[in-house]
Amino acid sequence: MLFFHTVTRHYGVANFTLMVPSITWWVITTIVGLLRVNGQVTVKKQRPVNLDLSTISMPATAKASILHRISGVALFFALSFVIWAWSESLSSPQGFEFVKSLFTGFIAKFIAWGAVIALLYHLVAGVRHLLMDMGRFEELGSGNASAKFVIALWVVLAVLAGVWIW
Amino acid sequence: MVVNQASLKRDGVQDFVSLRATALVLASYALFILGYFLTTPTVTFEAWQGLFSNLAVKVYTLAALVCMMVHTRIGLWQVLTDYVKNAKLRAILGFFLNLMAFAYVAVGFFVLWSV
Ligand code: HEM
Ligand code: HEM
Prior knowledge:
- The structure holds two protein chains of two kinds.
- Chain A is an all-alpha fold.
- In chain A, 80% of the residues lie in helices and 0% in strands.
- In chain A, helix 4 runs antiparallel to helix 5, helix 4 packs parallel to helix 7 and helix 6 packs antiparallel against helix 7.
- By secondary structure, chain B is mainly α.
- In chain B, helix 3 runs antiparallel to helix 4.
- Chain B starts with 11 loop residues before the first helix and ends with a helix.
- At the A-B interface, helix 3, helix 4, helix 5 and helix 6 of A face helix 1, helix 2, helix 3 and helix 4 of B.
- The structure holds protoporphyrin IX containing FE (2 copies).
- The site of one protoporphyrin IX containing FE has 6 residues of chain A, from helix 6.
């Protein structure tokens, strides 16, 4: 529930829907992880553990990083829709018209928008990542500034993509 | 340390390089497709099919799909190793995710074949 709360509050309900496949996976693995921890608690040394995300400070760099991970996983699952639509649209003129007609509806537009903005974030943050690999933005100040820039640029691009699709 | 990117045995350095090399190909392909949509006012079936019947575009698309498979094989492995501590479960999930990525490539291959 904590994860639910954190995601919806910080990243918005819209992005949340986009993340349903990855969240399903996250929930399954978390449950398995918890079962394992339960089995080990009595054996392992008790250590103080803080997993309450709402009390852990999330600087821009941390947000940029986790969003890159989420967008990468979301993109992987979104590809199933993208590749299906691509395959159908190339199969025949009827298939093309069918996919085109789907895009008059909200759900298809929303899925397309979700895939596009996941790609946009992963792309923009990926370029920042590559620049950091080459030694840029690795100081506290420039790291924070570039992380904020990446998130802000993404929000602008996401709105533009929304305008473009609708 | 011997670093041979062409060797079949993988290590962290090779994963690092492969992830970034494939990222560059994927970025260029994404910009290519985005550019196509932005510069084509109305995409008709003929134009759309014409695009993918071009041999160079076929090769580029297949290359992007294979790069996607390599990229997510490494990327999803990183995510799995971080969150799934049970080795057996991680192997099973990884297997299915890799199978899914392969299916993407295979579907793409046959679509390109038939265009
Ligand atoms: C195959 C592709 C590429 C290769 C082999 C390459 C190689 C290099 C090398 C060797 C350096 C010097 C690194 C250093 O001084 O620490 C460098 C610097 C740089 N590269 Fe690349 N690069 C590539 C792609 C890119 C791309 C795609 C971008 C932009 C998105 C980029 C942006 C930069 C920048 C901004 C620097 C300056 C970094 C600094 O001054 O610290 N490069 N690159
Ligand atoms: C088909 C498209 C793509 C998919 C499905 C995808 C998926 C992923 C996934 C799942 C990860 C692992 C995330 C993590 O470990 O936190 C990842 C990492 C990465 N991706 Fe992508 N990606 C795609 C395209 C791109 C593009 C276009 C770029 C280019 C800028 C890119 C750059 C990166 C980089 C630099 C990493 C390494 C992050 C790290 O080491 O923490 N990816 N990708």
